[in-house]
TrEMBL record:
InterPro entries: Extradiol_dOase_DODA (IPR014436), Xdiol_dOase_suB (IPR004183). Residues 34-233 form the Extradiol ring-cleavage dioxygenase class III enzyme subunit B domain. Belongs to the DODA-type extradiol aromatic ring-opening dioxygenase family. PANTHER family: 4,5-DOPA DIOXYGENASE EXTRADIOL-LIKE PROTEIN. Its cofactor is Zn(2+). It comes from the Bacteria. This is Dioxygenase. One of its GO terms (molecular function) is zinc ion binding. Keywords: Dioxygenase, Metal-binding, Oxidoreductase, Zinc.
Amino acid sequence: MSLPALFISHGSPMFAVEPGRLGPALGAIGRSLPRPRAVVVVSPHWMRPTLEVASGATRETVHDFGGFPRALYALDYPAPGAPEVADKVIAELARHGLHARRNDSRGRDHGVWVPLRHLYPAADVPVIQISQPSAPSPLALLELGQALAPLREAGVLLIGSGSLTHNLRDYFVDTPAEPYAAEFAHWVWAHLQAGDLDALLNYREHAPHAVRAHPTDEHFLPLFFAIGAAGCDWRQARRLDGGVLAGELSMDSFVFSAPSLTPAIAA
């Protein structure tokens, strides 16, 4: 059983309770795929100089945000861990020359549990998180995904969770919405369709509004983890139209190497 790789825009923590367009689309994906043995997620909200793998059998739901409605802090996503799959992740990374260590106490940040509430709302699929390098680059995340791509054949769903655009200053400042987020998102999708990996890797030089869309790029880099995880099939991309929140946060997401998904789910 080979599963696809996903890039999911997790947007604001409010996505947990405001599904918008993307939430139902993720739910449809979760129902259409074979049940994974486990889900492995990279999120920009856990960054370490040395790779770490959350390997405990149980994981705390971490509310790593402030200033949001109290209801968000009561939410839990009690999916089990999978220590044996975590060990396979570490072994696969080592096989590709990437050293990673176990972390048995790390909880799940909102970059993991918020989108998974929509993808697998029953929280019954084991979830493992991998730290993102603290000195990241598009190529580093691409190589991380490539190292773990074989796990897809073992029934592991690989996810890069980030945000297609991520300018929080614009998001929280009450100014008129501008078209830059949609224009940047359109550029990314066009180059995914064209299979132009070089342009994507060098997006800060080539994409319109790149620096404004990502003043820092840690939320964009999980896209490259998903591309790498899809292997040679990454050009088989499907877009999940998530819309743009507050004119600033593009919620567009992508499914790689999943040609069987219907256009109604991913176009």
